[in-house]
Each structure stands twice: as C-alpha cells, then as structure tokens.
C-alpha cells in the first residue's frame, strides 16, 4: 500500500490536518467567534474561513481558555509599516490587541491608527473613536499606504530564503562532483524536468536557456508557496489576487519585450489577410497578449488555490455542523478523514498549479520568440490567401 511505503509522508500530512482541525475548533483571534472565542454557528464558520483566506498582519496559531475562564490567543506579531499624513510610522501589530469591539486605536507620534477588516486606517484629527455608516464603512477615517510585513509577505520571503538555501546547496554539490548530494539531489530532477519537459519543447532548443532562470524561479516559488499553504501557519499567498497578478505581469513583460520581428509583424500587421482587416486583427491580437493571456494565468492559479483552501476548511467545519447528528467523536472522525483525503490531493494540486503556470508561461514566451520559416510555414492557396494550417 502507498501508506505503508511512505509512512513519514502520511504521518506528516495527518499531523498537518489534525493541527489545522484543532486550530479551527479552538477559534481564532480575528475570526467571527462567539463570546467565548469558539466557533459554533454557520455564520462564525463563514467568518473564520473568510479570515483564513485573507491576508493578515500577524499569525494566530490557536486559542485556549485558561483556568480563570479567559480566552487566550497564541501567535506572533509582524511589523506594521504605514505611510500616514504625517509621514512614516512603524510598530508591531501586537499594538492592535484583541478586544470585544475589535477596533483598537493606536497612537504613534501624533497619528491615530486603527484596523478595520484587516485594513489599517488613519483617524481624522481630533477623533477618539471610529464611526460607521449603515454599510459598516468608516466615516471618520481613511486608508493609509501599507508597506507592512504581512503574513503573505512573510511567506514570500520564507519561500525566497528556502530557494536560496536549496539552490546554493545544489551549486555546492556540483562543485564536489557530477552527482549532487543532500537537498540538491532532490532539486536536480525537478530542474531537469522543467528544462526538458517545459522549456525545451515550448521555447525551442536555440533560445530556451535564456528563459530558464525565470521559469525555474516561478516554478519553485509557486510550488513552495503552495506547500506552505498546507501547513497550520495558514499561508494563502497564491490565493491572493495581487500576487498572481504580479506573476502574470512578469510573464507578460518577458514575452512582450523578447518578441521577435516575426512575432510583431504577425501581430500588428498580419500578412495574408485584406489590409482593411489588419488594424482590427492587430487590436484583437494585442488584447489577447496584453489582457487575455495574463488573465488566464492569474485566474487559474488564484481560483484553484483559493478553492482548495476553502474546501479543506469547509470539510474541517463538518465537525461543528454535524456534531448534533453524529456526536462530537463521530463528526470529528468524519471531518478528519475527509480533510485528510483532500489534503493529500492538495499536495498534487500544489505541484500541478506550479507546473501549469510555468508551462503556459513557457508556451507564451515560445510563441513570441519563434522565428517563422516563411518558405514552409505559409503556403498560398488557390484564393491567394495564406494557408496557416498546422500540418
């Protein structure tokens, strides 16, 4: 059996799911919780899942009730760096400590700041409390420029550090001999896989080496972030639309700036069609390269990773919603089994999404840098128009 052959992987996955389940059952500092801090209703479950999918200024690991009946939250803060109307202000996110109303006002060098729905606001001059309209929007506060080290930023820095250490180990291994050892031995097959199965077939033998650094970086960056998202730390970096937008823009910039003369000639003034239609086709082609292709990249990664986190958290929530039907033990066992099953699938999805993003990036780059063979690629048919069918 697969479980018997890989007991360590199975136990690690089980521990991750159980830890996440325990965190969910204990509630969180920022989720929608009951008076005791625990999650008991469908509305509170939805609030907790929404918070889990969003970015945060700190890590909330788990919660517990002490002997005095007080709810305690365990985690660690992150640096808050904001640009206000009076300049730069820095402090730790622990200043926004949890209380009943959730809107703590922090005063730093004459500036009053508060956090509403995970966003930091600056209060107007002379204001002592936040007021809201009917839609719960702050009426006497405005957003600031937020450069804080949030949970997602911390995750990206951690992924970058892991990549630096891993590839440094691989480089040192090659200096010692043809076969690397340690972590490098794990990375080498993946590097060769990206080269031989993604870069070469899609970009071509002549030009693939130029784009290998980017393809390797984006593949391992997404893959590591996806794996971090399966840990109880609650990372959801690739589930943040801003991150996937930036990755898609990087790919777009690379294939647009490295496009060959043939690429731009076929895009802006397509041969073989009536001249009156060429400007229209040029607009359509540019929309495809500038908007549609990057959009397909960012949405596919964002939607799949967000959906995966949502499904896992929803399955864990079954232990709460079904405890009346199956009892506490039965609902917890069912929830754990289903969440474990989905988490194992998520390990595959974590790799698959990194592969798909890198594959499509290589495909788009290959389309842009391709040099057309005009003698064979386009054959005039009887009507005088080019026959561009793939033979």
Structural features, described:
The radius of gyration is 26 Å and the shape is globular. Helix 5 (183-203) crosses helix 6 (208-228) and helix 9 (278-316) packs antiparallel against helix 11. The strands form 4 sheets. The chain has a 4-stranded antiparallel β-sheet, with no helix packed on it. Strands 4-3-9 form a 3-stranded antiparallel β-sheet, with no helix packed on it. It has helices at residues 2-5, 7-26, 42-53, 151-176, 183-203, 208-228, 241-257, 261-268, 278-316, 318-321, 323-369, 374-377, and strands at 58-65, 71-77, 79-84, 87-92, 105-108, 111-116, 119-123, 141-143, 145-146, 379-380, 386-387. Helices cover 57% and strands 13% of the residues. The protein has 2 domains: 79-148, no CATH class; 152-372, no CATH class. The chain has 391 residues and is an alpha+beta fold.
């Amino acid at each position: 059996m697969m479980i018997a052959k890989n007991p360590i992987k199975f136990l690690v996955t089980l521990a991750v799911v159980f830890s996440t389940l325990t965190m969910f059952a204990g509630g969180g500092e920022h989720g929608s919780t009951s008076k005791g801090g625990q999650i008991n209703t469908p509305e509170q479950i939805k609030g907790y899942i929404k918070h889990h999918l969003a970015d945060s200024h700190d890590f909330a690991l788990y919660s517990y009730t002490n002997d005095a009946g007080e709810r305690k939250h365990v985690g660690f803060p992150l640096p808050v760096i904001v640009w206000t109307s009076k300049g730069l202000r820095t402090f730790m996110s622990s200043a926004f400590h949890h209380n009943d109303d959730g809107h703590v006002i922090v005063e730093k060098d004459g500036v009053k700041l508060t956090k509403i729905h995970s966003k930091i606001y600056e209060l107007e001059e002379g204001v002592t409390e936040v007021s809201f309209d009917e839609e719960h929007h702050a009426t006497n506060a405005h957003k600031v420029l937020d450069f804080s080290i949030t949970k997602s930023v911390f995750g990206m820095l951690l992924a970058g550090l892991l990549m630096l250490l891993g590839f440094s180990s691989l480089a040192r291994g090659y200096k010692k001999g043809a076969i690397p050892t340690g972590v490098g031995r794990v990375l080498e097959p993946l590097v060769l896989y990206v080269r031989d199965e993604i870069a070469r077939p899609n970009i071509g033998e002549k030009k693939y080496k130029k784009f290998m650094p980017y393809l390797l970086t984006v593949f391992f960056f997404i893959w590591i972030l996806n794996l971090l998202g399966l840990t109880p730390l609650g990372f959801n970096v690739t589930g943040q639309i801003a991150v996937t937008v930036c990755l898609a823009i990087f790919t777009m910039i690379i294939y647009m700036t490295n496009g060959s003369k043939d690429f731009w000639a076929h895009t802006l003034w397509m041969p073989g069609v009536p001249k009156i239609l060429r400007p229209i086709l040029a607009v359509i082609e540019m929309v495809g390269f500038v908007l549609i292709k990057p959009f397909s990249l960012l949405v596919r990664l964002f939607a799949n990773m967000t959906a995966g986190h949502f499904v896992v958290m929803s399955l864990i929530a079954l232990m709460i919603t079904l405890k009346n039907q199956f009892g506490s033990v039965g609902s917890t066992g069912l929830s754990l089994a289903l969440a474990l099953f989905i988490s194992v699938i998520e390990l595959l999805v974590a790799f698959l999404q990194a592969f798909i993003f890198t594959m499509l990036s290589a495909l788009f780059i290959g389309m842009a840098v391709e040099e057309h063979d005009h003698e064979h690629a386009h054959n005039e048919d009887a009507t005088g128009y080019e026959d561009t069918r793939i033979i």
